TrEMBL record:
It comes from marine bacterium 01-004080. This is Cupin 2 conserved barrel domain-containing protein. GO terms for molecular function: dimethylpropiothetin dethiomethylase activity. It holds the Pfam family DMSP_lyase. Signal peptide: none annotated.
Amino acid sequence: MRFPRKGREMACTAAQLRILGFLTKSVAVLGQQGGQIGQALQGVLADGRLPVSDLQPAVVPACVLMPGLLLDPRDPLMQSLADCVDDLHWKSPGFGRIPDAVSRQMAVVEILGPDGMFVHQRVRLGVLLQGEHLLYPNHKHLAQEVYHVLSGRAGWSVDSVAFQPREVGDFIYHRSNQLHAMKTQTDPLLALWAWWGDIRSVSYEI
Ligand SMILES: [Fe+2]
Protein backbone atom coordinates (compact mmCIF):
# COMPACT_ATOMS: atom_id res chain seq x y z
CA MET A 1 0.00 0.00 0.00
CA ARG A 2 1.26 3.42 -0.88
CA PHE A 3 0.50 6.15 1.59
CA PRO A 4 -0.95 9.48 0.51
CA ARG A 5 1.58 12.00 -0.57
CA LYS A 6 1.77 15.22 1.29
CA GLY A 7 -0.28 17.70 -0.67
CA ARG A 8 0.33 21.33 -1.37
CA GLU A 9 -1.99 24.12 -2.31
CA MET A 10 -3.54 23.84 -5.76
CA ALA A 11 -1.05 24.89 -8.40
CA CYS A 12 -2.08 26.27 -11.75
CA THR A 13 0.05 24.53 -14.30
CA ALA A 14 -1.65 24.03 -17.64
CA ALA A 15 -1.74 20.27 -17.10
CA GLN A 16 -3.35 20.59 -13.69
CA LEU A 17 -5.96 22.94 -15.09
CA ARG A 18 -6.77 20.44 -17.85
CA ILE A 19 -7.16 17.65 -15.28
CA LEU A 20 -9.22 19.90 -13.06
CA GLY A 21 -11.49 20.62 -16.02
CA PHE A 22 -12.22 16.93 -16.41
CA LEU A 23 -12.58 16.47 -12.64
CA THR A 24 -15.06 19.32 -12.42
CA LYS A 25 -17.20 17.88 -15.22
CA SER A 26 -16.98 14.40 -13.69
CA VAL A 27 -18.14 15.64 -10.29
CA ALA A 28 -21.03 17.42 -12.00
CA VAL A 29 -22.11 14.34 -13.97
CA LEU A 30 -21.97 12.02 -10.96
CA GLY A 31 -23.30 14.63 -8.54
CA GLN A 32 -26.38 15.17 -10.71
CA GLN A 33 -27.38 11.61 -9.89
CA GLY A 34 -28.20 12.85 -6.39
CA GLY A 35 -28.60 10.32 -3.60
CA GLN A 36 -25.54 9.21 -1.69
CA ILE A 37 -23.05 9.94 -4.45
CA GLY A 38 -24.49 13.43 -4.79
CA GLN A 39 -24.05 13.96 -1.05
CA ALA A 40 -20.55 12.48 -1.06
CA LEU A 41 -19.41 14.81 -3.84
CA GLN A 42 -21.07 17.89 -2.40
CA GLY A 43 -18.43 20.46 -1.55
CA VAL A 44 -15.53 18.36 -2.84
CA LEU A 45 -14.42 21.14 -5.18
CA ALA A 46 -16.04 24.01 -3.33
CA ASP A 47 -13.34 25.56 -1.21
CA GLY A 48 -10.64 25.94 -3.87
CA ARG A 49 -8.01 24.42 -1.61
CA LEU A 50 -7.76 20.96 -3.13
CA PRO A 51 -4.15 19.83 -2.68
CA VAL A 52 -2.27 18.42 -5.65
CA SER A 53 0.08 15.47 -5.33
CA ASP A 54 3.38 15.20 -7.15
CA LEU A 55 2.23 12.29 -9.33
CA GLN A 56 3.54 12.72 -12.86
CA PRO A 57 2.05 11.57 -16.18
CA ALA A 58 2.51 7.82 -16.60
CA VAL A 59 1.21 5.08 -18.88
CA VAL A 60 0.77 1.31 -18.72
CA PRO A 61 0.59 -0.97 -21.77
CA ALA A 62 -3.23 -0.93 -21.98
CA CYS A 63 -3.11 2.84 -22.58
CA VAL A 64 -2.36 2.03 -26.22
CA LEU A 65 -6.15 1.68 -26.58
CA MET A 66 -6.86 5.20 -25.40
CA PRO A 67 -6.34 7.26 -28.58
CA GLY A 68 -8.91 5.16 -30.43
CA LEU A 69 -11.47 5.64 -27.65
CA LEU A 70 -10.98 9.40 -27.58
CA LEU A 71 -10.80 9.98 -31.33
CA ASP A 72 -14.27 11.51 -31.62
CA PRO A 73 -15.38 12.84 -28.22
CA ARG A 74 -19.16 12.67 -28.02
CA ASP A 75 -19.74 15.28 -25.30
CA PRO A 76 -17.91 17.91 -23.18
CA LEU A 77 -16.98 15.31 -20.55
CA MET A 78 -15.23 13.12 -23.12
CA GLN A 79 -13.64 16.18 -24.74
CA SER A 80 -12.19 17.23 -21.40
CA LEU A 81 -10.84 13.71 -20.87
CA ALA A 82 -9.27 13.81 -24.33
CA ASP A 83 -7.71 17.17 -23.43
CA CYS A 84 -5.98 15.80 -20.31
CA VAL A 85 -5.43 12.11 -21.10
CA ASP A 86 -1.69 12.59 -21.62
CA ASP A 87 -1.39 14.41 -18.31
CA LEU A 88 -2.80 11.56 -16.23
CA HIS A 89 -0.96 9.10 -14.01
CA TRP A 90 -2.19 5.77 -15.38
CA LYS A 91 -1.37 2.60 -13.45
CA SER A 92 -2.55 -0.97 -13.03
CA PRO A 93 -5.85 -1.26 -11.13
CA GLY A 94 -6.74 -3.23 -8.03
CA PHE A 95 -4.01 -2.11 -5.64
CA GLY A 96 -1.71 -4.82 -6.99
CA ARG A 97 -4.14 -7.65 -6.18
CA ILE A 98 -5.56 -8.42 -9.64
CA PRO A 99 -3.84 -11.35 -11.40
CA ASP A 100 -1.24 -10.07 -13.86
CA ALA A 101 -2.91 -11.72 -16.86
CA VAL A 102 -5.95 -9.51 -16.22
CA SER A 103 -4.42 -6.32 -14.87
CA ARG A 104 -1.97 -5.92 -17.74
CA GLN A 105 -4.95 -5.43 -20.04
CA MET A 106 -6.36 -2.69 -17.84
CA ALA A 107 -5.46 0.82 -16.71
CA VAL A 108 -6.75 3.10 -14.02
CA VAL A 109 -6.15 6.64 -12.92
CA GLU A 110 -7.14 7.97 -9.51
CA ILE A 111 -7.71 11.63 -10.20
CA LEU A 112 -9.12 12.45 -6.77
CA GLY A 113 -8.47 10.53 -3.58
CA PRO A 114 -5.90 9.55 -0.97
CA ASP A 115 -3.66 8.20 -3.75
CA GLY A 116 -4.93 10.62 -6.37
CA MET A 117 -3.47 13.38 -8.48
CA PHE A 118 -5.65 15.72 -6.42
CA VAL A 119 -5.66 14.67 -2.79
CA HIS A 120 -8.90 13.97 -0.95
CA GLN A 121 -9.53 11.76 2.06
CA ARG A 122 -13.28 11.03 1.76
CA VAL A 123 -13.79 10.30 -1.96
CA ARG A 124 -11.88 8.52 -4.69
CA LEU A 125 -12.74 9.33 -8.33
CA GLY A 126 -11.07 8.22 -11.52
CA VAL A 127 -11.27 6.43 -14.85
CA LEU A 128 -10.94 2.73 -15.59
CA LEU A 129 -9.97 1.18 -18.91
CA GLN A 130 -10.64 -2.52 -19.48
CA GLY A 131 -9.41 -4.12 -22.68
CA GLU A 132 -11.60 -6.17 -24.97
CA HIS A 133 -12.34 -9.89 -24.43
CA LEU A 134 -11.47 -9.63 -20.76
CA LEU A 135 -13.13 -10.75 -17.54
CA TYR A 136 -12.48 -8.56 -14.51
CA PRO A 137 -13.56 -11.24 -12.05
CA ASN A 138 -15.71 -10.91 -8.95
CA HIS A 139 -14.28 -8.44 -6.47
CA LYS A 140 -15.56 -6.34 -3.59
CA HIS A 141 -14.60 -3.54 -1.23
CA LEU A 142 -16.09 -1.70 1.70
CA ALA A 143 -16.44 1.51 -0.29
CA GLN A 144 -19.70 2.21 -2.05
CA GLU A 145 -19.15 2.74 -5.74
CA VAL A 146 -20.66 4.15 -8.89
CA TYR A 147 -19.51 3.57 -12.45
CA HIS A 148 -20.56 5.68 -15.44
CA VAL A 149 -19.81 4.14 -18.83
CA LEU A 150 -17.96 6.62 -21.06
CA SER A 151 -17.13 4.40 -24.02
CA GLY A 152 -17.68 0.84 -25.14
CA ARG A 153 -19.80 -1.73 -23.39
CA ALA A 154 -19.47 -4.59 -20.95
CA GLY A 155 -21.45 -7.31 -19.27
CA TRP A 156 -21.92 -6.42 -15.62
CA SER A 157 -22.56 -8.94 -12.87
CA VAL A 158 -23.61 -7.82 -9.38
CA ASP A 159 -24.10 -10.30 -6.52
CA SER A 160 -23.02 -13.09 -8.90
CA VAL A 161 -26.21 -12.66 -10.93
CA ALA A 162 -25.90 -13.25 -14.70
CA PHE A 163 -24.02 -10.57 -16.67
CA GLN A 164 -26.26 -7.73 -17.85
CA PRO A 165 -25.28 -5.49 -20.78
CA ARG A 166 -24.16 -1.98 -19.83
CA GLU A 167 -23.50 0.72 -22.38
CA VAL A 168 -22.46 4.34 -22.81
CA GLY A 169 -24.35 6.61 -20.44
CA ASP A 170 -25.28 3.90 -17.94
CA PHE A 171 -24.69 4.32 -14.22
CA ILE A 172 -23.99 1.21 -12.14
CA TYR A 173 -24.03 1.27 -8.32
CA HIS A 174 -22.37 -1.18 -5.94
CA ARG A 175 -23.18 -1.26 -2.25
CA SER A 176 -20.49 -1.79 0.35
CA ASN A 177 -18.99 -5.27 0.01
CA GLN A 178 -21.25 -6.19 -2.92
CA LEU A 179 -19.58 -8.61 -5.33
CA HIS A 180 -19.26 -7.32 -8.90
CA ALA A 181 -17.53 -8.34 -12.12
CA MET A 182 -17.25 -6.92 -15.62
CA LYS A 183 -16.77 -8.82 -18.86
CA THR A 184 -15.91 -7.17 -22.17
CA GLN A 185 -16.34 -8.68 -25.60
CA THR A 186 -15.37 -6.95 -28.84
CA ASP A 187 -15.14 -3.43 -27.34
CA PRO A 188 -12.93 -2.10 -24.57
CA LEU A 189 -14.70 -0.42 -21.66
CA LEU A 190 -13.88 3.09 -20.54
CA ALA A 191 -15.70 4.19 -17.39
CA LEU A 192 -15.73 6.93 -14.81
CA TRP A 193 -15.86 5.64 -11.23
CA ALA A 194 -16.13 6.99 -7.73
CA TRP A 195 -15.81 5.51 -4.25
CA TRP A 196 -17.24 6.92 -1.05
CA GLY A 197 -17.81 5.64 2.48
CA ASP A 198 -14.95 3.49 3.72
CA ILE A 199 -12.50 4.14 0.87
CA ARG A 200 -9.49 2.42 2.41
CA SER A 201 -7.78 0.19 -0.13
CA VAL A 202 -7.14 -2.54 2.46
CA SER A 203 -10.70 -3.86 2.08
CA TYR A 204 -10.36 -4.55 -1.67
CA GLU A 205 -10.64 -8.32 -2.28
CA ILE A 206 -10.52 -10.31 -5.51
FE1 LIG B 1 -15.54 -1.91 -7.54
